[in-house]
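tool_call: predict_structure(chain=1)
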Amino acid sequence: MSDAVQNQPLGVFGGTFDPVHYGHLRLAEEAADALGLAAVRWIPAGRPALRESPRVSAAQRLAMVRLAIAGNPRFELDAAEVEAAQPSYTVPTLERLRQPEHCGTARPLVLLAGADAFAGMTNWHRWERLLELAHIGVAHRPGYSIDAASLPPALAALYRERGSTDPADLTGAPAGRIVTFAMTPLDISATRIRELLSKGLSPRYLLPDSLVDYIRNHHFYLGN
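tool_result:
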């Protein structure tokens, strides 16, 4: 990796991706453009810590993400959480990325999240460490910026102190800022896709055709 690329912010996008869909893909793509990211590293959770275990295996969800991001040179896949035999938590993942053999301590990392996920971050494991390890890039609907008054008090105070709408703030330090950006609103959810599939209905145009075929060929999400 060249020094120029090494100094550019790297987006970090974790999730269950059960299944990955166009809402995830657009968030990552628009974050790369809006925040000036060199790349977005997709990190599927092996064993999600804050929700029940998915019916589809971690290896299968990893395969779906690999299919979904194929052909996009700005997207890269990290399989470490899937391969680990332990629950996935964001702070330990970022600590792993900060190791010298990965991203090191100097490169700006930008944890990507939607506004709803950001609002719930105080429930995350060791959440106070997040801004020591990365910036946070928060996607919101156009015309509806993040309202500090609607956040939990501890997060609201942090947002007032560290919040910004200027992507240039991401390059001045490896971590520590909360930068917001507007993204195209897409009312797509993995829950809704699973519901459609469980009823034998079509999920086309909610996720890539390659995933529709993969899901049908493997008979995922059938029944209740």
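agent: The chain has one domain: 3-187. Proceeding to next step.
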